[in-house]
Amino acid sequence: MNSGDWLDERMEPATIRFPRSVELKEAEAVLVYVAQNMPAEVNYKASYYAVSRRDKDLEVRIELGSAQIGGTIHKEGRAFDTFESYLHSFNGLIAGFRFNLIPGYELSEHRPEVRQLWDETRNVALRYFSEDSRVRKEILKRL
Questions:
Q1: Which of 44, 103, 114, 133 could form a disulfide with 79 if both were Cys (CB 3.0 to 4.6 A apart)?
Q2: Is 65 helix (H, G, I), strand (E, B) or coil?
Q3: Do 4 and 118 touch, CB atoms closer than 8 A?
Q4: 88 — pLDDT class (breaks 50, 70, 90)
Q5: How, if at all, do strands 80-87 and 94-99 pair?
Q6: What is the pLDDT of residues 37-75, one digit of tens each?
Q7: Which helix (H) or strand (E) holds 42?
């Protein structure tokens, strides 16, 4: 096992892997869905890399590159934790979210309510992808 495999295995409980990669706007929709259905307060900052340039026809083209999103999820009266997106390196789309592990801590040393928050957030976030497309479109329209 190389060190990358160990790290991925260690991060798995704190990871939400989407069934498909998404653009930034849909990653935000997942967070809105989590806030609405857990319920929870979700604070986040979303950004992407963009390039604007003139092409041969002197038209300005905007090319969007990789995106990132990160913030906190707080379940009222319970735990909160920080998260960030992670990307598929080959296409720059968001592949999921990862909660931040405390350096030097084993998973078992993280508070039980924080680990429960990870699990509950994962379950709700993944439910978004099996939701009726009309529900997903309605959330996207609000963003």
A1: 114
A2: strand
A3: no
A4: low
A5: antiparallel
A6: 998 999 999 988 878 888 888 888 877 777 889 999 999
A7: strand 41-54
Which single residue is written with the structure tokens 């709700």? 124
| Cβ-proximal residues to 17 (8 Å cutoff; 6+ apart), any chain | 95, 96
Site of tokens 């979700």: 42
Q: How far is CA 126 from CA 41, 72, 130, 136, in A?
A: 18, 18, 7, 12
Residue carrying the six token digits 């680990």: 115
Q: Where are the domains of the chain?
A: 3-142
> Which residue is listed with tokens 């190389």?
2
**If you count them, how many residues does the chain have?**
143
When pLDDT is cut at 50, 70 and 90, the band that residue 1 belongs to is very low
Kindly report the pTM of this predicted structure. Answer: 0.83
